[in-house]
Amino acid sequence: MYRDSKPPDDSVYFENLTRCIFQAGLSWRTITSKWPNFKAAFDGFDVAKVASYEAEDIERLMGDEGIVRNRRKIQATIHNAKEF
To answer: How many CB atoms lie within 10 A of CB 45?
Structure first.
């Protein structure tokens, strides 16, 4: 995927981590077809922006039909951004 096997920046690393979380238990095709919507919904996987998400952001994401609306995976994504 990456020539030196390391993502070029934190947002790419965070995006890959998030994709793995949402992929768990679902088909690759489902996630691949929805991934552009995920990028938009999660502000391009900007770590600082996602880390600042609050309850209203979780509700916004839960209402977004373009992504997989799994509250625990959304919360895990926000938690991971904060830990990052």
So the answer is: 21
